[in-house]
Amino acid sequence: MAGEKNTSRRRFLLGGLGLGVAGVGALVLGWGVLPPRQRLHGGAPLPLQDGAVALNGWLAIGTDGTVTLAMPRSEMGQGVHTALPMLVAEELDVPLVSVRLIQAPMDKIFGNVAMLKDSLPFHPDDQGRLKALAQWTVAKAARELGVIVTGGSSSVKDGWGPMREAGASARAMLVAAAAAQWQVPAAQCRTQDGEVLHPDGRRASYASLAQRAAAIDPGTPVLKLPKDFKLIGQPAPRRDTPSKVNGSARFGIDARPPGMLYAALQLPPRLGDAVAAFDAAPILAMPGVKKVADLTPSLGKRGVSCVAVVADTYWRAKTAAAALAVQWTAGPQAGLSSESVVAEFSRLLDGDAGFTYYSSGVVEGKAVQDLRSVKAEYRAPFLAHAAMEPVNCTAQVKNGKVMLWVSTQAPGIAVDVAAKVAGVDANDVSIEVLLLGGGFGRRLEVDMVAQAVAIAMQCAGAPVQLVWTREQDTQHDMYRPAALARFAARLDEHGRIASWDNKSVSGSITHQFLQRNFGLPGAGPDKTTAEGEFDMPYEIANQRIAHVIADSAAPIGYWRSVGHSHNAFFKESFIDELAHAAGQDGIAFRRAMLLKHPRHLAVLDAAVARAGSAPPGHAHGVALHQSFGSIVAQVAQVSVENGEIRVQRVVCAIDCGIAVNPNIIAQQMESAVLFGLSAALGGEITFKDGKVEQSNFHDYPVLRMGQTPEVETIIIASAEHPEGVGEPGTPPIAPAVANAVFSLTGKRLRSLPLRLA
Q1: pTM for this one?
Q2: Which residue among 29, 199, 389, 473 is least crowded, i.e. fewest CB within 10 A of its CB?
Q3: Three-state secondary structure of 478-496
Q4: Over the stretch 496-523, which tens digit does the pLDDT of each residue have?
Q5: Distance between CA 145 and CA 18 in Å, rounded?
């Protein structure tokens, strides 16, 4: 166990986190001794209709027995609008079909506590007092901040407590109301399918009891034991599937408020370029064009310099924006190239010791200097998000009020930036969060919100829908950072890893995100840069993992599985290199370093057993990785056809704690594997003279149907707290494929995307 090693280092990390992320440094002395803010009762009433009665800040009972649940998380295909209602329905004892969702108001009880808590840079094996205190403090701060956000594979993990408590609390109130009405002890009553029942045959619907129950103090909620679950753990069908199949589902791009106009942009040809001049007259003469506006003054530091064209249809707006002749002033990134980024990374790794995120034992010195040394360097490129739904936002600014219709992962941040751009109070901003046609972290950003509001301010109260083109999305994304990693390990005479030294370099997403969205300076370490490296489970006595932050001229942001997305490739590929150098099978090599990690062993063994043997002409590659609390092992079956890597089958085993909905978990593993495989085989954003060289799916490809492998998911039974699901399936696929390619061809691919030529 790592225990409480590196205490001063960790305190420094927590201090930086407190000032930069969680706001702990801004809290007054004595705050820490106060009890944590409760998450059951909100500061404002729920927006209810038809006589529904709220029993707490999360749910209400309607006159027809319908349960209305306030939903604070965005649905972007990950299934939270099914999984989270299951938690409430389980504790409340109602059919899942009876739970209706409304958007949660901007209230602190709906803030995402788990996501901020998980941002702490502790090793999973740490069990010391410092970790417990830090997690408690940051969770408490997160309750005070109340940031409503969907990300970090945290929705079910965060909702596991408050949503179940909301259901259990309401159930206790309803039972107490029935018991008082019947003048019997509450202990004699039970609940089933939205009714309270008594052994003598009396029964009362929740709807008939709701008004009386609302006045009852439920006391401390008593949650069900897992053995009593009837809904949790069952493969319930997705609630959003029917509307997506019949076309009635509403995504951000489907917003159609009355009188809506359409807007398109002309964005800079290179990063950092600024609008110098343009001639609006010929554009205003085009059919349907209403307005041509330079958004630069309104956006300031909140976005890139750009010009908007507003018209009565999107096609007219897009055509006019493309025809607009804009003169641009070159910005500081005009000379940016992929080659210069890699050169700078190498220079930094040569001369900067970096920040040590984890160390144990001795990695240098007489004890290890005479052992066999193995070294390697790995690279990963910038990546775009490439969500299927184009970037969009619809905004209206009228009579000092702002209305937003938007697909967003961060409604709280969206409201804040809209208020700042429009110059109004945040209470004067309303938002309707619609379904997201893919998020992957791109819709944690609110640049499109700021742009839409800036446009709407010039449209005399009319709502305006802004839509980006695919080319604009590809060339003006907040990219997954590029990274470079160096490894040096020593093997003892038995072929075991005697020492492990890993140093990597990349830009800091957190630094840029804080500056871009909150105006806060980025400072100190950033866990996301080294996650997946410093927190590996392998039992290596002597290890050191460090990271160097490079100032990124390219805009970078959170991408599905964040640092794990490339660090898993680095780490798991090098593990395979060491196994080969030691003359050992990669699976046995890993198993020998997991003797104190039975959950990891079980996941690895399950995937390997299901995969069986590779057929002739194919090879298996294995990778094991823990991220967002979940442990995933993948076995990729690979062949090489006409010089191209083809993946036919992927076996994916996961231990994510209690499996709330196995059906959704399997879907998310399939989705994550295909997402990661697209990046592994073809994903790459390159820069030349300050411009992104890719533009659309022809040169930034995603997997086509014919390239899609069969994905088999194994869910390991567990009684542990639910952990992340949306992202953990992505990190292992690239190293699993790369390791299979080595087994098949003898070529070690150390750069992404994976290419044999």
Answers
A1: 0.95
A2: 29
A3: CEECCEEEEEEEEECCCCC
A4: 999 999 999 999 999 999 999 999 888 8
A5: 12
